[in-house]
Sequence to fold (981 residues):
Amino acid sequence: MSIILILIPLLAAFAILAGLGKAKSIATIAATANLVLGLGTVFCWKASIWDLSWEVLSKPSIHLSLGFYDGMSLVMVILSVLVLFTAVMSGKCPEGREKLWFSSILFIGAGGLGAFLSTDLFFFYAFHELALIPTFLMIGILGSGDRKNAAWKITIYLALGSIILLAGLIWLVSASGSDTWLFDDLLASSISTDAQSGIAALLIVGFGVLISLFPFHSWAAPAYASAPAPVAMIHAGVLKKFGLYGLIRLYPIVSTGMQDWLVCLIVLLLCNILWVGFVTINQKRLDMILGNSSVMHMGYIFLAFAALIEAGSFEANPLAKPAAVVLMFAHGISIALLFMLTDTIRRKTGTVELAELGGLAKAAPRLAFLFGLAGMASIGLPGLANFSGEVLVFLSGFNNYDGGCLGYVQTATILALWGVVISAVYMLRAYRQTFQGPPVSNTSSEKVKDFGPFCQIPAGILAISLLIVGLYPNSLLQFLDEPEAASSETEQASK
Amino acid sequence: MPSYLLEIIVLLGGLVLLLLEAFTSPKRKSSIAIGAISVLCFSLILLFFADKGFGDENVELTRFYAFDPLARFFKLFTIIATILALLLALDHRKVLSKFTANPGSEDGTGEYYCLFLFACAGMMWMASAKDLVSLFVSLELTTITSYILVGYMRRNVGSLEAGVKFLILGALSTGFLVYGIAWIYGATGTTDLALISDRITDQNSTYLLFGLALILISLAFKVGAVPMHLWVPDVYQGAPTPTTAFLSVASKASGFAIAIRVTEPFLNSGTELASKTTFILAILAGATILFGNLAAIPQKNFKRLLAYSSIANAGFILLPIAAWQTATDELTSKQVVAFYLTIYLIMTFAAFFILAVIHRNTGSDEISAFEGLGKRHPLLAFMTAIIIGALAGLPLTAGFWGKFLAFKTAIDAELWFPISIGFIGVAAGFYYYFQIIRAMYWRNSLESDPIEIRPIAFRSIAGLTCLVVVLGLWPQPIYWLLQNIS
Fold:
């Protein structure tokens, strides 16, 4: 059944390409249907009706196997349908390019959904690549600024990253001796310690490029800055989480090998947070600030992952995985909202240079409010989703701290806390430059109109999700501690 | 039914059609192509009834000719590739007739179709050759036919130049082959490949290695691998497009068929010679992948780009041979080669059909000829994008499976050096293949007339593209084709 979630956007994209109707209406209908269906799964995601398994090749045994592997898949699917819906609804398609625009968005969204719904390692990898050509075309043709270089850069980087990842995955499966590529079989197998270290390195680099881990991050900011808004939204919001999702998913098989790279990873993630943080402060354009900030925030999620590595298993640090997942969700929603609003600003004022903006709040109070909300969320203001995530990350860093000398992860956590200050600096400054102060010619209320009620729907949905998760993090966490609750129940029962 | 009848049918069909050609009016030369396709279809059907080679009663001939699952697969492969090449030739005959006798009329195009049949018969025989002598004879039948096929457009300088280059290097490689056979015969006293592995001793292993190296050089010419790869770009570019497609698919495949036959006794011998052979093959694979992919990057001509991509693919196919796997709980190396070649056939023919369409409409093979295709013919552009994605090895297309399985076999065998080069090669591939996509969608053409596609070409491209997508999701049918190969 869960294949429907992938098929709706895919078939809609083909229908658009075949010219079966008005591109915008097909895309809107498909995205809405997906949103309803995706949110509906919350109530019944454990039912076996969602599972599908079809052996596409018997040797090596590979299955087109879909379903909700665990709560983490569910959260990522909810994130994907939310962002896909808002991406379809937002942004302004250039005249005459509707087919390319909407079908690409749907293809990219279908790729993300497919990856998170796959319970077979092969298709988990394969679906992610579905996004490659549409992204290349969208940035290359409809992007802004230095779009051609940005398109080549993101394509080559992602291709290189995924090919390194592929090497790691093949090696992983072949070393595990598992008969199939199903997650179930893989996670039940074990790998010799010698091979683990090499596999872990390939996975960190391969996934790392896709997540924009320092120093493989330089593709991200320019690509997001020049991409059309929906592409930036889905890519930064959803697809980038693919790598983190994969690392956490595969972690139990290579837990020993990951230990070898813990220090290295901590240095890199601190560079993500602090180095890229300072780079972000220095940006002069709103879209570059957002692009860099999305790179920077990946560091926090990596921090949760590092805490997981240090602990050695999900059970030893029960906070790490929920922390990473909540922050992935929160970051996905907030960055999508920010890119969407930045695009609105670009269309209304014709610029995103901070120097040419100012006083927009007077002309567009609703826009200013939503941007402020998303910006505060991205800083980590309590009550908004990112705060829940970041607090959990910092707590998970200290979860196994026994009061003695500070370990690597604890030191990293303390340093990473400064990242919050850095993001407050650039985000507040961007907000002040854009919305406060006297209006300049671009932003005078005669020229700029606040956006109407219809455009507020997608933005409102994202903002409300931020509030819900921020005020009641258990709305997500309840899906995540399910297995542990189940195991403790069985323990109690056995006692 | 004995399988050698198939070769005889194809050969006789070629001879009869050649005879008929003399009596066919210039306007109806294309009926020769249709006749040739019918002969091939007929033998394709008969192939399913073939169950033995020469049989036990004919011991002397059985020595030279095997009919095992590997031979059956490569015969099937060759026949299908030849049919597709003939369809392409039918589609391409207007261009061909410009450069043959009586330019403009199809007067001189009839023999062209018959030649494919002779080459096909040679390749079918190659698939069955299990003795160095029969291997050499069948190889020569194919190669000599290919010289004519390459230089067929005799009023075109490029085609002639390609023909001469091909002839000289081909003759050289034949020399290497004979010399290598002589060394192996001298060292073991036999040309029967089945007997060689028992006769490897410490004394003769040096001579054998030398002989094998010479044979590998000549086979590298056949499949377009380093160190005999330099002819590929020039010959592919100059030859008529159907010949290029035929060379890059059928000829390469039969080269790999005999490469498997020749290296198998050495790789299975379990001696020190086996690891040395693996070493040589791994080096060749790595160097071929590196050269093919890096040299493809600056290309501006699509046909030439396909030539470099064909070199790169030869490297990827050498990879599983170097990582010799015979355990049947995974795909064996032979199966992986067959798997890769099947997918390669589909993608490459689709690419050449597209090239032929573009050439007829714009008169050019350059990548710039693809500019604005997204506007001029959106459907063709979309199909081209899928085929290019498959050639680059994007997942969910068939092209990914070939590379995936080749890498998997190599990783199982832990050949880290060629693997790391292979991954660099794939990443480089994304760059040069995506240039076509860029040309089609990013750029606008000065011309805006719609592209005209004939039904043959359109159906072939659409069919092959569908195969690429379907097999990308569900490659099991290919596995059924080759599951009996051990």
